[in-house]
Each structure stands twice: as C-alpha cells, then as structure tokens.
C-alpha cells in the first residue's frame, strides 16, 4: 500500500509536474511524447515491483525496479540537457532539483530491490531499509518537493517571490543532497553517527528553504486548503527527518533502527507525501481544468471546501495515530484521517464535473455565466457568517477527534495504561496508610529480561515504574494489580502507576511466552511486613521466581489460574461424532517430477481458531493456515525456496531440519508484517520437522507452529497408498484461548493428537484395500512427548527410522516383522504393511495414556475387488 502511493501516485505526479515546471522555468518545452513514454514505462515498472513483491517473484521485482530507475535517469538527463539549451532565466536553476532527485532515486531503488527479494542478514537488511527511505523519500520525493515549493508556494499565496527565497533556493539544494547522501552512506556503511549527521543536514536544508518561504505568508492568502496542506507537509517532512536521525543514532542495532524508521512511515507517507500531493493538486487542478476565470474560481472554491476541518482531521488523526495510544484509538483516528483524504477525492471529482458543466454552459449561444461571487482571502465567500461556520467546523473536527480518543480509551483502558493500582494490604490484611510520597523507578526491557528485575518501594508509597523498551521486540509490563504499560515498541517508554503499595507485587511481560522465558519483575515492599507476592487487587498468587511461574495472560500463553476455565473441562472423546470441520486429509500424493526441481512455497503465519476435539476450540498459530503446517514433499537434490510471511501479531521464525545451513540469518525472528526467504537443498532423506524457533520454542510448537518435510530417498519403491501422520501435544487453555504455559512447563498434556485434532481418524477412518501396500510416514513434533506408533491387527514388514531402514522386506530372515515405530520428539520415519483381511484396524501411539488422550485412529480396509 505504501508503494502504491509513493511509487505509484506520488512518483507519477513528480514525473508530470517536474517536467511541467522545468519547461516553465527553462522556457523551453520538452517533447510531450517522451513524457508519455516515461509515464507508461514508470507505471509498468511500479506494477511489476508491487506484483513481484506480493508474488515473491525476484526477476519481476528486479525488472520493475530497473524500469523505475531507468525512467528517473532518463528524466534527469533530459531535464539537464533541456537546461543547457534553454533561455537564461531567473529561476532556471531550480530545474537542478529535479536532476538531483532523479539521480538519488537510482540507488534508492537498488536498496529496495536488495532488501525485498535477496537473502540478506537482519543487520544489512536494517541498513538497506534506512538507506532506502533516505534516498527514495527524503531524496527523490523530498528534493523534488523542495524545488517545486519555491515557485508553487508563492503561487498559492498569490505573492511575488522575494530575493531571500531565491537565494535560499540556491543554498538549500547542495545541503539537502549532501544530507541525503551522508545519511544513506552512513547507513550502508553501518555508522550510526554518520547517518544521524546526514539527517541533521537534511533538516538544516529544509530549514534554509522553509524559513524565507514562511515569511511570504505574512498577510497573504494563507487560509486555503492548499496553503494549510503544504505547510503541514513541510512540518511533517522536517520532523520525520529529525526523528529518523535520532532513532538511528540511539538504536541498539540496525535491525532496531529499521523498526524505528518503519514506525515513521505514516508521518512520511501521509503527513508529508500525501499532503503535498493533495495540497498541490488543490492549487493546480483548476488550472488544468481551464474554462476561464469564472470556471477556475468555481472549481477552486469547490476544492477549498472546509479547509480548516479537513486540515485538523487529517493532521490531528495522524498525530494521535503516531502517539502511544491504545489500538482502538489508533483504529478510530486512522479511519478519520482516511476520511479526510477521501474527501479530497470526492471534491476533485465534483470539480471535474463542475468544470465540464460550466464550460458547456459557456459555449456558443449559451447564456453568459454570472460573475463569480466575491471571495475572501481564503477563497471562500466574503461572508462573516460563512467564515464563522468554517471556524466552527474546525472546532467540531477537534471535538470529533477527542471523542474518538475518549471512546477508544473507554473501551480499552488497560491498553492505555490507565488502570491504576489499589491500596495494597499489609501482611495482617489491614490497609496500609499512604505516606503521600511517590517512589519512581526506571526499568528497561532488554534481552527477555527486565533490568533490574527487582525494585523496592517503602510501604505506603505510591509507586511509578518508568519502563523503557531497549529491545528489538515488542514488550509490555503488567502488574498483578492490573496496572499496565500497554505494548511498547523498540525505544518507546511508558509510566506504570502501581498506586499505593503495601505488599509485594509481581509483574511480567504479557507478550506470548515472554514470561515463560523469565521476563518477570518483583516489587518488594520495605519498611513493613509484606505479603509475599500477593497482588494488590488479589488477582495473582505467589510467584516462585526460581521456578519461573508463568501464568501470564495476553496474546499468548494462558494459565488455568487466570480465571477462565480450561477447555480441557469440555473434552469428551467418548462420543461418536468428530469435529465440525471434519478430518484433515492425511494422503501424501506421489511425486511427479523426474529430476531435481525447485519447490517454491509461501508460509504465512496466521492466528486462527481451530477445533482440536469435538466442541473444543483453541486459537492456534499456524504456518499456512493449518496446525500442524502443510506437508512439504520432495526428493534428495530438490531445492526448497520458502517465503515466510508474518501475518501474526508477534515475532515468529522457521527452522527446517531438512536443510543444513547456518541459522544466523534464515532462522531469525521476524516482526509482524515482515518477510524472509529460506532456501535450502535437500541432501538427506527422511521425514524432517520444521517449526518456529522463536523463544520460548516449546510454546510456539505447542501452539501449532510445526510441520513435516518428507524427503524421499533415491529408489524408494512405489506403494499403493501413502499417509502422513504428525503427532503433537496440546496443552489446552480456555475455549478459544491459546496454549496453557503452566501445563506446558509441567508436561501435563490434555490431548495428544495426529495431524492437529484428537480422534479425527477414528471418526473419519483412513481407507485401504486388502492386498494393497500402505506406507505411513510418522513424525513426532512434540514438543516433549515420545511416540510409539502401532497398528492394531497389523504387522510392519519394513521400518524406516531417522534416515535408514531398521527392517526391510522382512529383514535378513525374510520373515521378520515389527510392531511399533518408536520416536522421540523431533524424530520421524515410516512403516509399510499390507492388510490381509477386510475390517477396521485401529492405529495408536502405544504410550497408552496418549492414545486415550486422542492419539488414535482407524484404517478402514475394504475387500479386494
């Protein structure tokens, strides 16, 4: 979506208007046909880039990026040649802005293509991301806007360009270009200080240009929507550049720096680029529509409807969206801001229709148009009442934004960090007298720990904990009395008001699995008898920090002690009906390719509900929409190109046991919205596990993030039927909840299942026919329990376990058989058997308590035809 606006709409406008302004400034028109060709090629390149990224097609992305960069170079070269052959003019030098902008886009596109479709490590990816933003947004768009504003800003104000503004335009260009280059070079070289310096130089260049231009607004026509939008856009441009430099300098890593810069996307895209676009078009569209002064004034007035209200709604919504507000508030204000932008599109469409109607009305034989009504300085009716209405509309816009904030906070006060702690009780249960003092402590979240992890507060003091997230992942702090920081991104801070504290208090990070990893905080009361780990609101039990109690609520792992009953209470495997969704297809289709091939697979991480037993629903984390994930199938020599897309709400990763390569890069955790490509060549046969390796790994696996890769050895005989069964454990949280972390830590599985659902193949048996040879691939993904796969009434004549046969065609005696395939967690293999009689043959894990927990099914064998 960002590239559709910046690479599509904004860049197309830049190509059109920079050529138009260059023609005017140089007083020499360029061939119109060349511009049309550039627009066509640029549009094709932009669509290829977007399609290539969405479809994960590297050649398409490279081709699209090459076309976009080529168009920028072509336009820059043509404008440079146009300037050499043009007439000397006062403002001809402004065309150099467009030449410089085109030159900066080329390396910006290169950085974008590299980080989008080529396997780079997280640090290099972060450096490329910062350089890409610097060159493409601050360079290509920013430098173009700077050159255009020199002539456009006085035009919207209806004033003359003064000498100070002209001198500033000459000085600002080299400063802006130098700042962008230093910022990008510092990022690519991995030198944060240099990148920060470059950002400071960019801000200086903006200031050099903005200050003299701002002085032109004194007493001028400063109330139109174009003026307000352009002024706000410049403010967001300078502010975002300054914050970008600070975040790069203070970030603990380039990966964190890229995340911080990514958080500025709304400011750069909406605040800067979108407002420049709509502000400029509000001024230029009436000129393009033509029709004479009367038509132009009517369309200008139409595009200027409600300027203050639209200005307040868009910029106020954006400011609130960027603030550390609850998610409901951000959703609400984003809708409001989008509405303000859509209003421009509606008004623009009406202006086009109005211009067409008025031109038709002024044709031969038509009644002359009435003289346009007298307008005030802002372009609206010269009516004090109308002016008051416009100011009133701005006030209503402010009230509307405040209403959205109040509603969002009211619906989710905890996310806003407004839940305050109550007065805690002392050890004897008596209330503690408040001292009137406030103890403020600072805590950092880093490396899955709170530092310090213990804080002290005198009994009766009000406690305020200032939490700063110094990590690259999202964290929060939740206290047992309900006080919370809300989710904090990298570098963000929040104050947690625990209230008056009289007893020891527990705190933790509620992001899935983080408490399980030891991300806990102990508040210790001094100067009085403290109740060990008794929550002020009575909501938490004692925490044994050595045992790492982890009953945290939040996105992920839940605990039976959290209040909601466990879904285990609803488990009934004695019924005759399966799950509403039916059984998962366990068939492994045969391979059709004859030689080594490249297999491209996209695995999207998604969070969704899944019925894991009749009437029992859990929210699972999935690869590709299923838990366990889809079965990947190939032969030794095949190459797998896996694209992992994190559409979840927390960080995830993937580890393929079927590949042999360094885990540093391809197995890294990616944040929501990010993508990585994992490529490996299968060199060893077997059934291999893949799984999320983000810590705590046990929770991610138990919550569904595991699957099987079947790599057939050369010469594997064909069989009549092949099935894949993935055994795993389920530690049930509440209905529609996620895995219970305490049960997981204790190893107390509620269900043990094949292919994600208890007893599914008991209700929907796997078919076979007498005399057919059946191969059953089995993988134990755990995360903790072993498997002992057995077919009741069947005997295995071949057993393949962990890459080799332990029995093949009856073994050395020719009559050998096996009764079980024994697997530890993460082990796999297959068995082969033939059924001699028709009937129903149960299969189970012969760890019988696990079979009774759901690790069972049936082969339904029909008589031979």
Properties at a glance:
five-stranded mixed sheet, globular, 19 helices, 27 strands, 865 residues, alpha+beta, six-stranded mixed sheet
Question: Could you characterize what this model shows?
Answer:
The protein has 865 residues and is of the alpha+beta class. Helices cover 42% and strands 20% of the residues. It has 19 helices and 27 strands. The strands form six sheets. A six-stranded mixed sheet has the order 18-17-20-25-22-23. A five-stranded mixed sheet has the order 19-27-26-21-24. The longest helix is centred in the first third of the chain and has 36 residues. The radius of gyration is 33 Å and the shape is globular. About 6% of the residues have low confidence.
């Amino acid at each position: 979506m960002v590239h559709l606006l910046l690479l599509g709409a904004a860049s197309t406008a830049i190509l059109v208007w920079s050529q138009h302004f260059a023609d005017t400034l140089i007083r020499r028109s360029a061939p119109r046909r060349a511009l049309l060709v550039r627009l066509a090629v640029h549009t094709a390149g932009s669509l290829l880039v977007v399609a290539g990224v969405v479809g994960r097609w590297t050649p398409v992305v490279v081709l699209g990026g090459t076309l976009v960069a080529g168009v920028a170079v072509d336009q820059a070269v043509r404008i440079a040649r146009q300037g050499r052959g043009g007439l000397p003019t006062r403002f001809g030098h402004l065309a150099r802005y467009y030449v410089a902008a085109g030159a900066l886009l080329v390396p910006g596109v290169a950085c974008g293509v590299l980080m989008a479709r080529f396997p780079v490590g997280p640090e290099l990816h972060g450096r490329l991301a910062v350089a890409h933003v610097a060159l493409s947004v601050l360079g290509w768009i920013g430098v173009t806007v700077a050159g255009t504003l020199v002539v456009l800003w006085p035009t919207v104000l209806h004033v003359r360009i003064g000498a100070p503004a002209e001198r500033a335009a000459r000085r600002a260009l080299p400063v802006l270009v130098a700042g962008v280059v230093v910022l990008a070079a510092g990022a690519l070289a991995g030198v944060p200080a240099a990148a920060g310096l470059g950002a400071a130089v960019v801000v200086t260049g903006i200031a050099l240009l903005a200050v003299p231009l701002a002085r032109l607004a004194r007493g001028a026509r400063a109330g139109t929507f174009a003026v307000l939008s352009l002024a706000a856009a410049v403010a967001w441009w300078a502010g975002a550049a300054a914050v970008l430099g600070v975040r790069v300098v203070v970030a603990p890593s380039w990966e964190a720096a890229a995340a911080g810069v990514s958080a500025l996307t709304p400011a750069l895209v909406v605040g800067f680029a979108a407002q420049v676009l709509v502000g400029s078009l509000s001024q230029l569209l009436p000129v393009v529509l033509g029709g004479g002064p009367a038509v132009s004034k009517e369309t200008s007035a139409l595009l200027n409807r409600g300027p203050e209200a639209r200005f307040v709604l868009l910029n106020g919504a954006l400011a609130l969206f960027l603030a550390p507000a609850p998610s409901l508030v951000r959703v609400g204000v984003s809708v409001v801001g989008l509405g303000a932008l859509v209003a421009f599109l509606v008004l623009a469409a009406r202006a086009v229709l109005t211009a067409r109607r008025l031109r038709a009305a002024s044709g031969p034989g038509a009644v002359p148009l009435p003289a346009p009504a007298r307008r005030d300085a802002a372009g609206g009716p010269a009516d004090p009442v109308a002016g008051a209405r416009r100011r009133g509309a701005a006030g209503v816009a402010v009230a509307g934004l405040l209403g959205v904030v109040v509603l969002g906070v009211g619906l989710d006060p905890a996310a806003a960090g407004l839940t305050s702690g109550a007065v805690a009780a002392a050890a004897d249960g008596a209330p503690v007298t408040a001292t009137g003092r406030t103890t403020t402590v600072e805590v950092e979240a880093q490396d899955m720990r709170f530092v310090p992890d213990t804080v002290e507060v005198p009994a009766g003091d009000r406690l305020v904990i200032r939490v700063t997230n110094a990590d690259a992942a999202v964290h929060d702090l939740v206290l047992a009395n309900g006080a919370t920081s809300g989710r904090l991104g990298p570098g963000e801070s929040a104050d947690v008001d625990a209230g008056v504290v009289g007893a020891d208090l527990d705190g933790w990070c509620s992001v899935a699995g983080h408490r399980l990893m030891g991300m806990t905080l102990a508040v210790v009361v001094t100067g009085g008898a403290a109740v060990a780990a008794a929550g002020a609101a009575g909501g938490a039990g004692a925490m044994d920090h050595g045992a790492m109690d982890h009953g945290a609520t939040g996105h992920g792992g839940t605990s039976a002690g959290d209040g909601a009953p466990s879904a285990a209470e609803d488990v009934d495997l004695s019924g005759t009906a399966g799950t509403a969704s039916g059984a998962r297809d366990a068939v492994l289709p045969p391979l059709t390719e004859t030689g080594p091939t490249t297999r491209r697979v996209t695995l999207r991480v998604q969070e969704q509900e899944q019925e894991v037993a009749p009437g029992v629903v859990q929210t699972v984390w999935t690869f590709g929409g299923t838990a366990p994930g889809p079965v990947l199938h190939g032969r030794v020599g095949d190459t797998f190109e896996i694209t992992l897309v994190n559409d979840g709400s927390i960080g995830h990763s993937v580890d393929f046991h079927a590949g042999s390569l360094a885990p540093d890069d391809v197995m890294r955790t990616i944040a929501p919205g990010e993508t990585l490509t994992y490529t490996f060549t299968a060199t060893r046969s077997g059934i291999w596990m893949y799984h999320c390796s983000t810590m705590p790994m046990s929770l991610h696996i138990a919550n569904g993030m595991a699957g099987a890769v079947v790599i057939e050895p050369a010469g594997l005989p064909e069989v009549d039927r092949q099935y894949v069964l993935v055994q795993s454990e389920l530690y049930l949280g509440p209905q529609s909840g996620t895995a219970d972390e305490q049960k997981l830590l204790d190893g107390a599985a509620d269900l043990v299942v094949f292919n994600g659902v208890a007893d599914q193949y008991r209700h929907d048996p796997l078919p076979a026919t007498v005399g057919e040879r059946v191969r059953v691939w089995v993988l134990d993904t755990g995360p903790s329990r072993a498997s002992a796969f057995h077919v009741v009434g069947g005997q295995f004549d071949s057993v393949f376990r962990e890459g080799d046969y332990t029995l093949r065609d009856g073994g050395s005696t020719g009559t050998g058989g096996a009764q079980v395939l024994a697997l530890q967690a993460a082990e796999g293999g297959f068995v082969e058997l033939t059924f001699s009689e028709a009937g129903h043959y149960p299969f189970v894990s012969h760890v019988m308590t696990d079979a009774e927990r759901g690790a069972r099914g049936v082969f339904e064998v029909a008589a031979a035809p």
